[in-house]
Amino acid sequence: MAFQMAKSGQRYFEIMNIPQWHEAGYTGKGIKIFEVEYDTDHCQQVFEAGKIVAPDAEFYNREGIRREDLLDYVDHIKPNIVAMAQDFNMANYEWFAKGLHERGIPFFKSADNDGDLIKPNELAYSPYVMTIGAISSHGNKANYSEYGEALDFVGFPIIISGTSITQMTSGAALTALLMQRYGQMTPYQVYCYWQNHCKDLGELGFDIYTGYGMPVLPDVKEVYEMNKPNKIILHHSATDGGTFESIKKYHVEHNGWDDIGYHYLIQQDGSLHKGRNEKTVGAHCLGQNDSSIGICLVGNFDKYEPNDKQMKSLNDLIIDINMRLGITEIQGHNHYSEKTCPGIYFRWKDVVKLEQKKEQVSDWAKEAWNKAVKKGINDGQGPKNPVTEEQMMVFFDRLGLLD
Ligand SMILES: [Zn+2]
Question: For a designed S-S bond to 214, which of 49, 199, 310, 336 qualifies (C-beta 3.0 to 4.6 A apart)?
Answer without folding.
Answer: 199
